[in-house]
Amino acid sequence: MTIWPTPVLDLLAVGGDRPVFEDGDRVVTAAEMSTMIRRAAAGLRARGIGPGRGVALRLGVGAEAFAATIAAFAVGARVCGLPAGLTAAQREHLLSRDDAVPIDEVAFGDDEPLAAAGRPGDVARIIYTSGSTGRPKGCAQTYAAMSAAWAPCPDRWPPAIAQLAERLDRYLVFGSLSSQVMLEYGILTLAAGGVLVAARSPAFPDAFVRHRATASVITVGKLHQLVRSQRANPVDLSGLGALMVSGSPLEPGRLREALDVLGPVVFHGYGQTETGMISMATPGEMPDSVGRPPAAVSLRFEDGELYVRTPAQASFYWGDPEESAKVFTGGWVRTRDLASLGEDGYLRLLGRARDVIIVQATLVCAGPIERVLATADAVAEAYVVGRPDDETGEAIHAFVVPVTGREPDPAELRALVAARLGPLAAPKTVTVIERVPLTPSGKPDKAALAA
């Protein structure tokens, strides 16, 4: 087995003067990045970071951040990425339970020889969910799993990925390279011969024009905004080749509109933090599907719920055996999504087997929000639903039944949720109702509330 990130180290080692990273006026060649990674690895080793040790990288998207990220894997560390939107208490809790060394600035050492030191069974990466459950879950991916990933190895690319790779000349990176999706497509870009282009202010469509980007990751909400912007005030996006929609399903009508306005550039698919990519659809494929799963991905269905097995999937939730047992079962990952596989080979999502809302590409669970709202003195009952939203993909809407004689304050309730669970969990609206509608069986009718 070739241990991750050896393919990336090898690719950069022979790249010479080929540009691989662009940050403003600064262009970093493959040779320079290779040296930077070796020196960042030496700096990590000087701090006692090596196999089995945890690091929490909070470094943004600059060239040094990329070098430090790859270097942390190269020394065999357990690399932790903290999601945006966590409360201070949630962030400190994660750092303490993972015993990870927080690294906010790259310390470079001498230029020393470097070989990947990761051990196959060790955890290579912990990717934390948003914390919308009140307790962020850390998806633990081993070095063996990361070594089986397709991104750095063209001979492993599924057909849809091979088609995407042709369009990754200038891939826009923003936010944080600890993002699973941002880093994965970045590695794919390097393997495809492209350049990573750092965007400090990733406002679309301006960032595409300013950085001459040919590709980027985009959420459903941002895609809606881009389509509206192009209809109202079109700019020249003729150089744009690929937008990889991430985080939440894209409705067929919205997909057709995006293709009509932006051209054949929208790649959309399906995956989870626990599994990585499950399927991807190219711009010309079935708009009512999420594409064809590649041969390396196995699917099975139980009562309509999808279970998957992917080469690079996580193995468990860090420090959470109870939740791990519910999701990671016998080598399969329970997606908690309802789906079907057609005779045409296309995977179609039919709904969710859990009560979640996807806000800005982040899963937010309804239950914890309802429990927080119910702690307010003026609230007797609380119910949360999701609805499609042009700004955020989906939005959270809360309904509260007041305590007799009390009048809940919607602004205070939104602030309460934000303080406890983070800003992404704060409801967009809070509506006071006299009583909750019921289904014929007497259960709260959330479908009626959402309607």
TrEMBL record:
Residues 369-443 form the AMP-binding enzyme C-terminal domain. It comes from the Bacteria. InterPro entries: AMP-bd_C, AMP-bd_C_sf, AMP-binding_CS, AMP-dep_synth/lig_dom, ANL_N_sf, ATP-dep_AMP-bd_enzyme. One of its GO terms (molecular function) is long-chain fatty acid-CoA ligase activity. GO terms for cellular component: membrane. CDD domains: AFD_class_I (cd04433). Residues 16-97, 113-318 form the AMP-dependent synthetase/ligase domain. Pfam families: AMP-binding, AMP-binding_C. Gene3D superfamilies: 3.30.300.30, N-terminal domain of ligase-like (3.40.50.12780). This is AMP-dependent synthetase. It comes from Actinoplanes siamensis.
